[in-house]
Design a protein that fits this description.
The structure is a homodimer of 331-residue chains. Chain A is α/β, with parallel strands linked by helices. Chain A contains eleven helices and twelve strands. The structure holds a DNA duplex (30 and 30 nucleotides).
DNA sequence: TCTAATAATGCAAACGATTGTTTTTAAAAA
DNA sequence: TTTTTAAAAACAATCGTTTGCATTATTAGA
């Protein structure tokens, strides 16, 4: 590998002169700069980030820690953040944890070992750290240095919409990793509209979301008195419920309305495009980066949690209950 | 940040002794090792990868370059490789290119700047590089230092299966980024079975795969004499075609058979689980890493391309043509 | 108890860059 | 032409580790 030293000796210059020339330092004459840059290009010099880290004390690296990259939510977050940080001259270092706290600790240590300038952490929680960090995708949205959507509000809005279009028998299905806030939003919307909560219609299961959705969908929709709407804790559950309704030959949205949560790209391409609650990914990444950079330039400060309102996206999987075949309405 | 120097002075030892103690060097007495390690832990010492890179000349970093992480194929590849490299003590540095060659050049340079020990490159091509690399997800599978599936074989197998169960009018739909090999496999299978190729049934479009599948599916399935099977260049196209058939109320698989390609996780959770050609992701990542490490330990050698056979996964979207309602068979 | 052998630790150079300070060179003023 | 000043380049220390070699401490053998 070509080093600055090599260029210096070839050009009979001092390494400091070469270093400054390459970085356009004003002290160096234009003639020398030109000569050095051209020669560096010719011999294929590539600066060594490791070597420059030491005197500078930073390497413009930022870590992103997510639980599972296969989830479209996190790969979208990565894509957004990588783009935005790239524009600022930073390199994004991605780690995944498989939702495992032991792994989380390990990747935190790796990040520290890499002396990253900052950390963006999704899903996991951490109290404090010697370096700037932001949390995203959090259960609780109070406190500091967090960016998250208002899950409670999103679910409340979704369920309110269902109630407004005439639904009363509304089920809630999700997996154990879904934030409880969504369930609370569901409960509150029912309560505020004077609908009694039926605990048998609130289903939280451990397992693969699509399977939970499919199995519980089959079960609920086979009941004699079945729900007219199913609010899903996330889109994957929604995909499973959709499949169960199609399997049972129950028409969507005429006989059952389904709402998902997250607005994954796939939802709009499903056989029946899913009504869902959109997480504004671009805003989330934008605010996360904003806060992180403020903390990086202002290390002592804490920034109050940024709460973003999710948005109800109405597609084809929901309809007013008046459209339903009357025989299916038992309530 | 705590450094080795600090530990040395606190413990009244030389930095070299501390360094060796932390790395379990045999020259150091057990007593000193214990004392150093305990103190290091107590004060929260974290080794500086940048500092140790210099004398060692390596940092155990490997780059993975993929075009688009939002595609489940690439996020699965990342997940597999991150896991396997983590076990070997390497850190995986991920870059995406958005299918853009300019971006690709940039991330190659960033990788070199990070002095990675090796590169795993998906989709993009590169002739040679001063550091070890492997290509995956490649169009052409001859040559060296590549791991890829046999796309031709996969398509040939899929289409042969359709022919074996009685289909003759088989369409092919895909987007422009799909490797041509799949189309060739489709053509060869038809040819080898004495079925004339109808160029109107071979559709390659630019755009979002699901939309291509949906729009072209609608078009093909609305024809008076419509195909009895549609072979899709990838699963996303398949998802679109599935939607179009459901929209037109054409029964799958009774009235039309659909095959995808890749076996994305979602395919088995679709309302009609998709028959598809599986890319064995684990094998691909395993071989990629094997070749990369062989090259890293044996820099001059080149390794012949590793070709992996994909596997036909039969689900619910395909059926023998004999099951089809006779009135729809015109051929 | 003294010497030899070995174990344990310290010393110092090195990795490739950056940067404050000094020296040299060139240009401007006298 | 000489002196002063500014511009350009060189010098040298430094960042936090690693590692070959020298030195010191300890143990064993005579």
């Amino acid at each position: 590998m070509i080093t600055i030293k090599r260029i210096a000796s070839d050009l009979k210059l001092d390494i400091s002169t070469v270093s400054r020339a390459l970085r356009d330092d004003e002290k160096i004459s234009e003639k020398t700069k030109k000569k050095v840059k051209e020669y560096a290009k010719k011999v294929g010099y590539i600066p060594n980030i490791f070597a420059s880290y030491l005197p500078k004390g930073k390497a413009s690296l930022i870590s992103l820690i997510v639980p599972d990259l296969k989830h479209p939510y996190y790969s979208e977050i990565f894509t957004q953040i990588e783009k935005k940080l790239g524009d600022k001259g930073y390199i994004l270092q991605l780690f995944t944890t498989s939702f495992n706290e032991k792994n989380f600790e390990k990747v935190i240590e790796k990040s520290l070992s890499l002396r990253v300038s900052g950390l963006i952490i999704a899903y996991h929680k951490i109290e404090d750290l010697d370096i700037p960090f932001v949390l995203i995708d959090q259960e609780k949205i109070d406190g500091y240095d967090k960016v998250s959507i208002d899950n409670f509000y999103g679910a409340y809005e979704g369920v309110s919409y269902l109630i407004n279009i005439g639904h009363k028998k509304i089920a809630y299905i999700t997996d154990i990793y879904t934030t409880k806030e969504r369930e609370y939003g569901y409960r509150k919307a029912l309560k505020d509209n004077g609908i009694e909560i039926n605990e048998n219609l609130i289903i939280v299961r451990n397992g693969r979301c699509e399977e939970i959705g499919y199995n519980e969908g089959l079960r609920l929709l086979s009941m004699k008195i079945r729900p007219t709407a199913i609010f899903c804790g996330n889109d994957f559950v929604g995909i499973g419920v959709l499949k169960s309704a199609i399997k049972l030959n129950i028409k969507i949205p005429d006989q059952v309305s389904i709402i998902g949560f997250d607005d994954l790209p796939i939802t709009s391409y499903l056989p029946i495009p899913l009504t869902t609650i959109r997480q504004p990914m671009e805003e989330i990444s934008k605010f996360a980066i904003d806060i992180l950079f403020k903390k990086m330039n202002n290390s002592e400060k804490k920034f109050p949690a940024k709460i973003i309102k999710p948005q109800l996206i109405i597609r084809d999987s929901t309809a007013p209950i008046y459209n339903n075949e009357k025989k299916y309405i038992r309530n």
